[in-house]
Design goal:
2 helices; 6 strands; globular
Length: 91
């Protein structure tokens, strides 16, 4: 499975195809567009988005036939559940 990454790198976003840098963008959406286009064209493939602190924000697997499956990264899994502000128990 081919591996693509969008990695925060100081003030820019790097797009990697395996270990090779194939794009550098000042805006995250531009980097994501390049990486998603390449990942879809190279399916089966995996695209990971990595924050500046090294945490994986999201991983998406692209399958032949155009289907994709995304998983949130560790950042969201490790966050405690948020209280629902509409479920207050006022009496």
């Amino acid at each position: 499975m081919r591996r693509f990454e969008v990695v925060a790198n100081h003030d820019v976003w790097d797009v990697l195809d395996g270990d090779d840098v194939v794009g550098i963008h000042p805006r995250k959406p531009d980097a994501l567009w390049q990486a998603m286009t390449a990942a879809r064209a190279s399916s089966p493939s995996r695209l990971s988005v990595i924050a500046a602190d090294g945490q994986v924000e999201n991983t998406t697997e692209f399958h032949p036939g155009g289907t994709a499956a995304a998983q949130p990264g560790r950042r969201w899994r490790s966050s405690p559940p948020q209280a629902d502000p509409d479920s207050s128990s006022a009496g």
